[in-house]
């Protein structure tokens, strides 16, 4: 049945606030909801000073108001609309509470103070508040949690959190609960499914998976290897090969079934995916999810995955990016079935472009680049030019008879976002890394991508959500040329807070001297994470933990750090390193020469190797492991160390880790500022009769190796440096000037000797560190990968 023009305009109106077409059409079936929603949008625009563009978050609340409200309070909607537009009502929880209050008090005048109190209007629950409340709830239930572990009802904890934080976002509360439970209990050793059986898109539950050093893209579960492909695949419901026509939105033509039969004959029904990066920059953490998804999904289904370079933009492509991408894919543990380039098919793509013109589905246009920007592009005056004329002009473009920008080839189709006639070819007088100077016209992504997928018989074209608007043109182009049409599936891209991943912005950080290069460990490019010491197993585990969601995901970097700790905790050998040394001379050292000690690399499993260190009359300890008489470590009244202080102090002996000796302070040597620079101590064997067991043991070094330690912090002050509301001055104004601290005073035991760049260690009681490529034979340089425990500062 035909839809009236009025209804079409309403659909457009409803889509403008964030409803998809299906929901907009369903809304039209209810006249009352339609009327209310139109009114809500009109009134909201007035409140927003005539703005026609309403944000999706506000739009969702306008729709919720139209569907949830009752007729008896329609005359009071102006109160709720004001709060919604001012973003004082931020979620449906607050809106529902406000509606319930007005239903109980449906007459004017409305007590606004009571309304705001009852609905939490204007209340902002900060991440710090959520973290503190969850800490308190877990502390209240800690004995039972430690006893029952993950058999304890998390619903009970979440119920208490809801009582204390009635207006907090439930997903954020659940995410914080998961993080703190993981911190307290460690990995879950039973099924990590949510109570609904659905994927948790904000913070996945603590996985029972434990890392293994055997392969980069596997995690271990109850002794069995379980790969990312298995973890992700459980959340997917993709079509079977050859059944493309069963997917929503797929376009079936008279030739579709024959093409699918030919496709199945060629592929044998094998799943075929591809990872198609542009070789014009370094891969970042978001690409790690794409790599794991494309390669992992193929692996799960015994399929194959291509690495295809989308090299259609010659001006920005460099050989180092081609090799760098392959290097990272292999570093993550994946081997491409075949490495291809979009440019491999330039000849075929050119022939297909001419065929498109012959079919009257493409034309040469002379509108300028500025005229083609945006989504409300006017129809081209050359749209209906004769076919032969467009063919000749296209040939002229190829032969260099036009300047850049003077002509483009455009396709006669409308994209899902409403953009008319996307460009298929443009002129670029640039040297191409692979094809050299053969071409001066280059195909666009919109033209190239789907046709390359077709040529390679891709079964599942997996891409991030921003490409959803291109799905209709993807299908249109394959069908317009009567070639095999794959299925495009979109998923939410991975974004992290406190960083930027835009190639342009990273390049700006480099040119401005904020970071040193693409692999600066403060960035979240994959080369930077590798240099910082992030194991590929941890990155893959992180991708497996967050799973595959269809919505955009913005995560706190602490979630990635937790995966790094989990892997390094079982793979990084232990060594002793003193970061701020204090010299200690043992006046009664029991030997004329040093004593050689054999230290396990993994104290919990001594079968995994060891290293030798020297114990001598001069050792070095951390300055912070010695405290003189002051309130922090000393009970003044009773002239003895405070009960909670367990390290070295006057009148309080302390044990030396691995040495089996206890030292006691005899004298303190000071500098001109009265600061201790050396301790004179005596030592006794910890096993000697009459020696009291020391309260604590500290790490130390003797005959040490000097090294440089680089400590990294967040590069940006705010969680979302790209957000103009959060950072009005732009991302360059948000730099944390203390994001890098260099310590040249560190001393390490012999466990670090002969280590190579990217070797990883746990510096006992300090953190996890990785050998930096700047290291030389004379000086080791270490990057702190992560601290031993999560940083509990405000996020």
From TrEMBL:
Span of domain Glutamyl/glutaminyl-tRNA synthetase class Ib catalytic: 270-569
EC number per UniProt: 6.1.1.18
Region spans: Disordered: 187-224
Catalytic activity: tRNA(Gln) + L-glutamine + ATP = L-glutaminyl-tRNA(Gln) + AMP + diphosphate
Compositional bias (Polar residues): 193-204, 212-224
Protein name: Probable glutamine--tRNA ligase
Record SUPFAM superfamilies: Nucleotidylyl transferase, Ribosomal protein L25-like
Domain of life the protein comes from: Eukaryota
Positions of the tRNA synthetases class I (E and Q) anti-codon binding domain: 697-772
Domain Glutaminyl-tRNA synthetase class Ib non-specific RNA-binding, residue spans: 9-170, 173-260
GO CC, any one term: cytosol
Keywords: Aminoacyl-tRNA synthetase, ATP-binding, Ligase, Nucleotide-binding, Protein biosynthesis
Gene Ontology MF terms in the entry: ATP binding; glutamine-tRNA ligase activity
């Amino acid at each position: 049945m035909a839809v009236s023009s009025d209804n079409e305009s309403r659909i457009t109106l409803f889509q403008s606030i964030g409803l998809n077409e299906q929901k907009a059409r369903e809304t039209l079936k209810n006249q009352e909801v339609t009327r209310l929603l139109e009114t809500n949008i009109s009134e909201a625009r007035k409140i927003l000073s005539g703005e026609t563009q309403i944000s999706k978050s506000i739009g969702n609340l306008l729709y919720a108001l139209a569907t949830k409200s009752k007729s008896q309070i329609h005359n009071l909607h102006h109160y709720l609309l004001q709060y919604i537009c001012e973003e004082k009502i931020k979620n449906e929880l607050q809106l529902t509470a406000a509606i319930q209050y007005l239903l109980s008090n449906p007459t004017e005048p409305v007590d606004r103070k009571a309304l705001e109190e009852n609905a939490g209007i204007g209340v902002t629950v900060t991440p710090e508040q959520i973290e503190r409340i969850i800490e308190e709830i877990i502390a209240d239930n800690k004995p039972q949690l430690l006893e029952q572990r993950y058999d304890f009802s998390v619903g009970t904890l979440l119920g208490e959190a809801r009582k204390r934080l009635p207006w907090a976002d439930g997903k954020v509360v659940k995410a914080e609960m998961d993080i703190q439970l993981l911190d307290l209990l460690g990995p879950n050793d039973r099924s990590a499914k949510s109570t609904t059986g659905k994927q948790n898109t904000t913070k996945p539950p603590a996985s029972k998976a434990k890392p293994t050093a055997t392969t980069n893209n596997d995690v271990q579960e109850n002794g069995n290897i379980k790969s990312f492909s298995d973890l992700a695949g459980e959340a997917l419901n993709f079509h079977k090969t050859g059944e493309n026509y069963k997917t929503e939105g797929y376009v079936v033509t008279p030739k579709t079934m024959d093409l699918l039969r030919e496709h199945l004959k060629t592929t044998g029904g094998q799943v075929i995916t591809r990872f198609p990066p542009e070789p014009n920059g370094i891969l970042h953490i978001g690409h790690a999810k794409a790599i794991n998804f494309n390669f992992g999904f193929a692996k799960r289904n015994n399929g194959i995955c291509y690495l295809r370079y989308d090299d259609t933009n010659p001006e920005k492509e460099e050989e180092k990016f081609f090799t760098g991408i392959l290097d990272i894919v292999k570093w993550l543990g994946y081997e491409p079935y075949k490495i291809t380039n979009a440019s491999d098919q330039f000849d075929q793509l050119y022939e297909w472009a001419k065929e498109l013109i012959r079919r009257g589905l493409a034309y040469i246009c002379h509108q300028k680049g500025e005229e083609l920007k945006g989504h409300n592009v006017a129809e081209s005056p050359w749209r209906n030019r004769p076919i032969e004329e467009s063919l000749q002009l296209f040939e002229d473009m190829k032969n260099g008879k036009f300047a850049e920008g003077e002509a483009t080839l455009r396709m006669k189709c409308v994209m899902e976002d409403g953009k008319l006639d996307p460009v298929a070819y443009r002129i670029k007088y640039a040297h191409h890394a692979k094809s050299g100077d053969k071409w001066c016209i280059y195909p666009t992504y919109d033209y190239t991508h789907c046709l390359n997928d077709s040529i390679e018989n891709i079964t599942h074209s997996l891409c991030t959500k921003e490409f959803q608007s291109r799905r209709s043109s993807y299908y249109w182009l394959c069908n317009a040329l009567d070639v095999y049409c794959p299925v495009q599936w979109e998923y939410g891209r991975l974004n992290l807070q406190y960083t930027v991943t835009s190639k342009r912005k990273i390049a700006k950080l480099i040119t401005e001297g904020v970071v040193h290069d693409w692999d600066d460990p403060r960035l979240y490019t994959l080369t930077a994470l590798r240099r910082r010491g992030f194991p590929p197993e941890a990155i893959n585990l992180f991708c497996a933990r967050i799973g595959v969601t269809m919505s955009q995901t913005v995560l706190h970097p602490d979630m990635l750090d937790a995966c790094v700790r989990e892997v390094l905790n079982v793979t990084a050998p232990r060594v002793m390193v003193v970061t701020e040394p204090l010299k200690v001379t043992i006046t009664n050292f029991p030997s004329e020469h040093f004593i050689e000690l054999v230290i396990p690399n993994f104290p919990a499993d001594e079968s995994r190797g060891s290293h030798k260190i020297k114990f001598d009359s001069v050792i070095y300890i951390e300055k912070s492991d010695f405290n003189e008489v002051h309130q922090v470590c000393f009970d003044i009244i009773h002239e003895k160390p405070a009960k909670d202080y367990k390290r070295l102090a006057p009148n309080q002996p302390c044990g030396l880790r691995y040495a089996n000796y206890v030292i006691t302070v005899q004298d303190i040597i000071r500098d001109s500022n009265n600061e201790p620079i050396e301790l004179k101590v005596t030592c006794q064997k910890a096993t000697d009769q009459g020696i009291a067991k020391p309260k604590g043991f500290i790490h130390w070094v003797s005959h040490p190796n000097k090294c440089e330690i680089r400590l990294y912090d967040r590069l940006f002050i705010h969680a979302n440096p790209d957000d103009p509301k959060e950072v009005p001055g732009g991302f360059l104004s948000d730099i944390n000037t203390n994001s890098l601290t260099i310590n040249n005073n560190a001393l390490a035991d012999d466990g670090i000797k002969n280590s190579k760049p990217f070797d990883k260690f746990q510096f006992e009681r300090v953190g996890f560190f990785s050998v930096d490529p700047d290291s030389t034979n004379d000086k080791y340089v270490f990057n702190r990968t992560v601290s031993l425990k999560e940083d509990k500062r405000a996020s």
